[in-house]
């Protein structure tokens, strides 16, 4: 199992820990940020293919920011694709 620890940039969240096995997201844990929304997002991502999650999350913006927690999760998951 691959464990990705990622420090997001430009968002309220402070750290993501993502576990991936055979290209499938097993868990997403977020420290900081909007707790309820991120727990929901983590639950929805569980069992999803990494490629599908990146495709759906990448480019999402939060208000006037150029990124968002979902976009930063996509950036973290791209690490899994490259390993």
Please describe what this structure looks like.
The chain is an alpha+beta fold and 83 residues long. The protein has one domain (2-82): Enolase-like, domain 1 (2-Layer Sandwich). The chain is built from three helices and three strands. A three-stranded antiparallel β-sheet has the order 1-2-3. α2 packs antiparallel against α3 (69-82). It starts with a strand and ends with a helix. The mean pLDDT is 95.
Give a brief description.
The chain contains 3 helices and 3 strands; from the N terminus they run βββααα. The chain has 83 residues and is an alpha+beta fold.
How much β-strand is present in the residues?
Answer: 15-25%
CATH-defined architecture? 2-Layer Sandwich
Strand order in space, largest sheet: 1-2-3
Low-confidence runs: none
What integer is the average pLDDT? 95
Distance between the termini: 12 Å
Report the count of strand segments.
Answer: 3
The first-level CATH class name: Alpha Beta
Strand and helix layout:
Elements: E1 2-6, E2 15-21, E3 24-31, H1 35-45, H2 50-57, H3 69-82
Helix pairs in contact: 2-3
Please name the defining characteristics of this protein.
83 residues; alpha+beta; Enolase-like, domain 1; three-stranded antiparallel sheet; 3 helices; 3 strands; 40% helix; globular
